[in-house]
Amino acid sequence: MPLYRRPGSPHWWVRIGRKTRRSTGTADRAKAEEFELILTERLWRRNKLGDRGAVSWNEATERWLKGSIRERKRDRDFLAWLAPNIGEEMISSIAEPDALEEIRNDALEEGWAHSTVDRAMRTVRAVLRACWKWKWLDAPPYVPMYGESEAEPRFLTQAEFGRLCQELPPHLNRAARFAVCTLLRKSAQLRLTWDRIDLAERRARIPHGDMKGGKNFGLALSDEAIRVLKECRAADPQGERVFQYDGKPMTTFLTRAFLKAARRAGVAPLRWHDLRHTGASWAVQSGVTLQELMALGDWKSYKSVLIYAHLAPHNSVAAAQKVSTNVAHSLRRKKSKK
């Protein structure tokens, strides 16, 4: 059994292969099993697929601290606070915008001031930038700060997305269209397998281990999403994973081919996460409410979808009209009394 108990230890331990022996840090069997699943997936992606971003956050921080000539006491305090929650997560997942925002929200829930939260996020940013220098990440991620102006979410127009799709090779074309029409995050999309898809019911099941929020997610499949899935199956009838290239599961979408296609289409620089912003922006512009968007894209807080509120001006116009109607009615009453 991968899970076992050591004499004198209250926690479950996990055994994977001949080399990996690690404490799960919990006496709860269910939580220990979840830890084992995450660790197994990460080791498989790193050892079998050669995914550089599959290195754990704990491994990255250990290397970062060892390479520093400074004591970094404050940094160590912040990293110790982060370790129980994200220590075994892949750095590629931590670098996602939604994951970084969740870390910031967790810090706020601790009662920290904005300046303290920014200090912790600067530590996170330093580690992730070091990972980029070590070639573990394809690009240095943007880390939001309260004391710094936040970048506007980037989204493509329909014409820009059309040009991008024309330039993308078929396997990336399918992946990009699926990202926009489902709002699925990159890591969950890469791990999507056929056994979790029900085309007849037009649903896909994303297990909690593949979701940033750590909860099971039921993904509704639109006509375009089903069309993409059928194209994927036709391109690779035997594959276990949905998104494959040359008979092998894709480990990233942000490849050299994607970056070159973005330049040719005139939309560079472009991140894969910008496609999620694109789908969300189009949804709001088409009349989807922010509450509906929150459920469609599996955002944890209403604050996360407020960045799209300005794209629904018809709602503001309707509200403004109600105010002006009350003002006009008040003026008419005043005139009638005279």
Task: Report on this structure.
- It is built from 15 helices and eight strands.
- By secondary structure, it is mainly alpha-helical.
- The protein folds into two domains: 3-133, no CATH class; 158-311, Intergrase catalytic core (hpI Integrase, Chain A), CATH 1.10.443.
- The strands form three sheets. A three-stranded antiparallel sheet has the order 1-2-3, with helices on one face. A three-stranded antiparallel sheet has the order 4-5-6, with no helix packed on it. It has a two-stranded antiparallel ribbon with strand order 7-8.
- Helix 2 (57-66) packs antiparallel against helix 3.
- The protein starts with a strand and ends with a helix.
- The model has no long low-confidence stretch (mean pLDDT 82).
